[in-house]
């Protein structure tokens, strides 16, 4: 089953953007994520529309944070990357007149809707800066410099 890693990847990118404190090119970000620059630009466009990142073209340009990490929640980033499906579970719809299918779908839909709402409420409580702080604690516990890249850890 294929999963959607946009939220995780963009959170990763935002943390590195703060660490770099300089514009990061789409090529640089793509290399870090093992993807292509066009995909990076498309995904970051949603974050730019929300004001979470800014971009500058030309020599010395690139992507930078548009606001502090403490002013962004996981929910903000989730919404900015297009609100990807949270669950891979789906409802059967090949027999819509079947009373058994209707009963199953009603129970599943209600449960999935409740779980999604709970998860999105929790996303709204977690600031991206909380992830940065967690990373810093982990690095300190291992005696690592906080500024290490993922490849150096």
Which secondary structure elements does this structure contain, and how are they paired or packed?
Blueprint: H1 6-20, H2 26-33, H3 37-49, E1 53-56, E2 62-65, H4 74-80, H5 99-125, H6 128-141
Antiparallel strand pairs: 1-2
Written overview of the protein:
This protein has a single domain (6-147), classed as Winged helix-like DNA-binding domain superfamily/Winged helix DNA-binding domain (Arc Repressor Mutant, subunit A, Orthogonal Bundle), CATH 1.10.10.10. Helix content is 55%, strand content 5%. It has six helices and two strands, in the order αααββααα. It has a two-stranded antiparallel ribbon with strand order 1-2. It is elongated and about 60 Å long. The protein starts with 5 loop residues before the first helix and ends in a 12-residue tail after the last helix.
